[in-house]
Structure formats: C-alpha cells, structure tokens
Specification:
By secondary structure, the chain is an all-alpha fold. The chain has 6 helices and 2 strands; from the N terminus they run βααααβαα. It has one domain: Four Helix Bundle (Hemerythrin (Met), subunit A), CATH 1.20.120.
C-alpha cells in the first residue's frame, strides 16, 4: 500500500508549491489560445513545457520546504486536470484527438476524486500519488505534443503514446483501487 502523505502544514494556503500549482491551471488559457494559431507553435510548445516542469516542481518544492498542505493536495491534481483537459478538449473538438480518450480521462479523474474525497472525509489524510499516474500524466503530455506537432517520420507514434498513456492510467487506477480497498477494509 502507498504511504500516507504527511501533511506538514495543514492550515497554510499560500506556499510556493501551491502558487506553482495554481499557475499551471492558469496556463491552460494561453496554451489553448496559442493552439488556435499555428504560427504561435513555438510559444505553445514553451507554455506546455513550462506546465510539465511545474507539475514536476510543485511537489518537490512542497516537500523540500516542508510545506505540504491540505490545500496543495487538492489544488495539484485539479491543476493537472484543468491543464490537460483543456488541451485535450481543444484537440478533440478540432478533430485531432480521439474522443474516447477524453471520456476515459474524465472518468478516471472523477473516480479518483470521489475516492480521495471519501478517504479524506473518513480518515483526514491523503494517500500520496502513485508513480503509474505520474507516468500516465507525462505520457499523456507527450501524446498531446505529438498530436499538436506530429512527427512525419514516425506517424504511428501518435497512436502509440495514447495507448501507452491509457494502459498506464488503467494500472494507476488499479493501484488506487487496491490502496483504497486495503485502507477501508480495516
């Protein structure tokens, strides 16, 4: 079972890590705006890379500064969801990404959010994120990049990254289910 995440500062809201997480959610607006204009491709790439970097950085900053907060535990995954979902939504609506992935992505996040809310309300703690989910988010970001800027030399890579991200999300989902089962069996 995953380790319980130690909340070092339960009441604090304004921390550097939380600001980084909120910044990632706000980045969704300029990313989608620049996606609309192909001439802004390098700016879009830069914004997406900043969003990916912020996802890796916020948790590290929180643990390094010993400022893991309840607010941060909610805002981090919500920021990931907003940022990725906005890009996926745009690509699905423009016909450049499969709609089934969009639906699967939403269902997975809703399911995990419901379990997290239940766990928090019952036991007042969070489980730390599993690495399968982190990898799924990273591969999803890569799939989005390949759909925005397809590699002509390797056209199959677009579909491959989507399927790999889906498999990783399923594994992550199963790990969450197992952890919550063990947690609530007690």
């Amino acid at each position: 079972m995953q380790n319980r995440l130690k909340i070092s500062d339960p009441t604090k809201i304004v921390t550097l890590a939380n600001i980084i997480s909120l910044f990632r959610a706000v980045l969704a607006v300029p990313i989608v705006y620049t996606l609309r204009d192909p001439s802004l491709g390098s700016i879009t790439l830069l914004l997406i890379l900043i969003a990916i970097l912020s996802d890796a950085l916020d948790g590290w900053v929180a643990r390094k500064a010993d400022e893991v907060t309840y607010f941060g535990q909610w805002v981090d995954p919500i920021s990931d969801f907003i940022c990725i979902l906005s890009v996926v939504s745009y690509l699905v609506l423009s016909g450049n990404f499969p709609a089934w992935f969009f639906l699967f992505y939403i269902l997975r996040y809703l399911f995990i959010a419901i379990l997290a809310i239940y766990a928090f309300n019952r036991n007042q703690f969070f489980l730390s994120a599993n690495w399968w989910g982190k990898w799924a988010t990273g591969i999803t970001a890569l799939a989005l990049l390949f759909h925005i800027w397809p590699w002509e030399a390797f056209p199959w890579i677009k579909d491959l990254t989507i399927y790999i991200a889906t498999v990783l999300m399923i594994i992550s989902w199963c790990v969450y289910l197992k952890d919550f089962y063990i947690l609530f069996k007690k």
